[in-house]
Amino acid sequence: MSDGSLDLDDFTDRIERPLGSVRRDAEERRERTGLPPGALGRLDEIAEWLSAAQGQVPVRPVERPRMLLFAGDHGVASLGVSGQPVDGARELVRAALDGQSPSALLAGHQGVPVRVVDLSVDCPAEELPAEVTRHRVRRSSGRLDIEDSLSAEEAERAFRAGMAVADEEADAGTDLVVLGDLSVGGTTAAGTLVAALCGTDASVVTGRGGGGLDDLAWMRKCAAIRDGLRRARPVLGDQLRLLATVAGADLTAMTGFLLQSAVRRTPVILDGVVSAACALVAQRIAFRGPDWWLVGQASGEPAQAKALDRLTLEPLLDHGVTVGQGLGSLLSLPLVVSASRLAAELPVREPESASDPVSDLDAT
Question: What's the CA gap between 278 and 116, in Å, rounded?
């Protein structure tokens, strides 16, 4: 990509797997703690994953995590497919910035800085801080059921914006990203992507969303995904065009962010169905991408379950949290931090030498 052109095929070569040899060294070090195998459950798995991502043993404890929320409105929300008010992403953004949303409140208690990136919030840019809107591509998106969400040029801009955010975080020393979204209509876009990529019908992936849709709203959402799916299937071979067709700027940017974070070796905790759908698109672009991601929680959305099955990723938690907004990924952060600290600080026995000179002397 050095010539300025955006060639998604480049990611296949640029994304390397976390170091398998380091992971084996981490496993060997864990065996020398004296704890019985399996005593720490998934904490061992998480710590070994982090060691491989960092390329070092013992693992470096997570000290500079950041919560990153991609924000945008979706035109499809005008069909009544969301429990949030139409064009309501602005209020979600304001609550996050003011520390009043569930995820922002918990992030504050955990000492985790929150960054909001507006890609397509439907309000005048001057109503939000400049550092939030500087990557904005447009206001809202096209209705995915009848028109493209983005133009080709807008899709490339959004994808590049996500890549730029990944570079900014890596350059700032962020050692773990807690990912989430602030969107209205985003789960409809996500469901359309998952259905298209998994080859399933709309009804299989249509959930109730964070707002707990009633039956009538669920049927409207299912119909919107069905119509979006008809438009998405013909462009499945071109991932950037697929994103332009049904994803919107926030999901497109999140996909670019996930891939560039993997290039920069920055581990990411995924949240709910939106980040899972973006991860599924990213996997299509670069098959090694999922090696750099954990999944914070099972959201209960059927599209998330479908995507995670295809990604072969297992959520760390399952508490029935449906609010989205990065809360599920944030709830899992203490688990990941604990795993890194235990692996780094538990005392280990030094390996025994191949030959004990005292024993050899006694044998004579």
Answer: 17
| pLDDT digits 0-9 by tens, 99-134 | 999 999 999 999 999 999 999 999 999 999 999 999
Greater model confidence, 212 or 38:
38
Q: How far is CA 41 from CA 37, 96, 157, 242, in A?
A: 9, 33, 42, 39
Tell me the two tokens of residue 247.
């994803």
Of 292, 237, 295, which Cα lies nearest the Cα of 54? 292
pLDDT digit string (tens) for 203-262? 999 987 666 778 898 999 999 999 999 999 999 999 999 999 999 999 999 999 999 999
Q: What is the pLDDT of residues 76-101, one digit of tens each?
A: 999 988 878 888 899 999 999 999 99
Apex 326 CA angle, 320 and 332, nearest 5:
65
Which amino acid belongs to residue 216?
Answer: L
| Sheet-wide strand order for 293-295 | 114-120, 65-73, 176-184, 268-270, 293-295
Give me 283's structure tokens: 């996997």
CA distance readout (Å), 257 to 141, 209, 269: 19, 23, 12
| Cβ atoms of 190 and 273 closer than 8 Å | yes
Does domain 65-334 correspond to CATH entry 3.40.50.10210? yes
Residue 58, beta-bridge partner list: none
Q: Are 155 and 81 in contact (CB under 8 A)?
A: no
Bridge partners for 120 per DSSP? 72
Two structure tokens written together for 101: 């949303």
Identity at 167, one-letter amino acid code: D
Strand partners, 269: 178, 294
The answer to whether residues 92 and 83 touch, using CB atoms and an 8 Å cutoff, is no
| pLDDT at residue 363 in the model | 44
Distance CA 181, CA 270 (A): 10
Domain ranges of the chain: 10-60+345-363, 65-334
